[in-house]
Design a protein that fits this description.
Number of domains: 2
Radius of gyration: 19 Å
Shape: globular
Largest sheet: 9 strands, mixed
CATH topology of the largest domain: Immunoglobulin-like
CATH superfamily of the largest domain: Thiol:disulfide interchange protein DsbD, N-terminal domain
Pfam families: DsbD_N
Protein name: Thiol-disulfide interchange protein, contains DsbC and DsbD domains
Structural class: mainly beta
Order of helices and strands: HEEEEEEEEEEEHEEEEEEEEE
Strand content: over 45%
Keywords: Signal
Distance between the termini: 20 Å
Number of strands: 20
Length: 279
């Protein structure tokens, strides 16, 4: 059975090769909305906040040709991104982080999920005090790979009321998968009693012969690419192997997020309840 290489092992190996570069990058990025190092440039952009309490922003990850980075579930090998608010943030709460649909690629015989071209991560925030000023400070850790893998750490910040770029942020949100809010495309998720396989049912009208399914769950669950796809009546069942899971086992798997990719189209289901299959 294929298993996942622990992210901690990958980070440790990369740090052994590039610790000085990583530390320098983190220090240089503090207090700025941009950061650049070999392989990638990062920029934090906000849209005008208007009169309400909602704030939209985006983290642009501009990969140089030949470099790649990883999705939330990086696959059999890869470093998952870590993005969150740092303590310097003022009067803002993070409501959601959304990534564009990933692709699959092979690295040294392992299947990974991620990106081989520039991308933007969409950030939805809310002011805790709508009439007060705010500061957005973001902590970012990404794994980027070319001939070797390098962890990139950066601290980015900006004033959302200052310089803004609505068009850029709108583009970041427009590039996200369509939301399957009514569960009309991705309809059901179930886990085998032994925790080895996850199955998702997709409406046949939404899945083509070349469709792929990416799944992520919190708490240390990782899934491989679909091993089997069965079309029965009006549904297509995708079966994915479980590459890694937490020691708490099945009791910790309550919901999954899934992205169905068909050509250039992508649709996402969030917080899909997972049913445990009978033995």
């Amino acid at each position: 059975m294929r298993t996942r290489i622990a992210a901690s092992a990958l980070i440790g190996a990369a740090l052994a090769l590039s610790s000085s570069l990583w530390s320098l990058g983190a220090a240089n990025a503090a207090g700025s909305s941009t950061f650049e190092t070999d392989g990638v440039a990062l920029s934090l952009v906000a849209a005008p906040s208007g009169t309400g309490d909602a704030v939209r922003a985006a983290l642009f990850i501009d990969l140089e040709p030949g470099w790649k980075t990883y999705w939330i579930d990086p696959g059999e090998a890869g470093i998952p991104p870590q993005i969150g608010l740092s303590p310097e943030t003022k009067n803002l709460e993070l409501e959601s982080i959304a990534f564009p649909a990933p692709t699959r690629f092979e690295e040294a015989g392992f299947q990974s999920n991620g990106y081989k071209a520039p991308l933007a991560v969409a950030l939805s925030l809310r002011k805790t005090k709508p009439d007060s000023g705010s500061n957005l400070a973001l902590s970012v850790m990404l794994g980027i790979c070319h001939d070797i893998c390098v962890p990139v750490s950066a601290e980015l910040s900006l004033d959302p009321a200052g310089e803004t770029d609505k068009a850029a942020v709108d583009t970041a949100f427009a590039d996200l998968p369509r939301r399957d809010s009514a569960a009309e495309a991705i309809t059901e998720a179930s886990i085998r009693a032994d925790g080895s396989k996850l199955s998702l049912k997709v409406a046949a009208s939404a899945a083509g012969d070349s469709s792929d399914l990416f799944v992520t769950a919190p708490g240390g669950w990782y899934f491989g690419p679909p091993e089997d796809t069965a079309r029965t009546g009006g549904e297509v069942v995708f079966t994915l192997p479980v590459l890694d899971k937490p020691k708490e086992g099945l009791s910790s798997l309550l919901n999954v997020d899934a992205i169905l990719v068909t050509g250039e189209d992508a649709i996402e289901a969030r917080d899909l309840a997972v049913v445990r299959e009978p033995k």
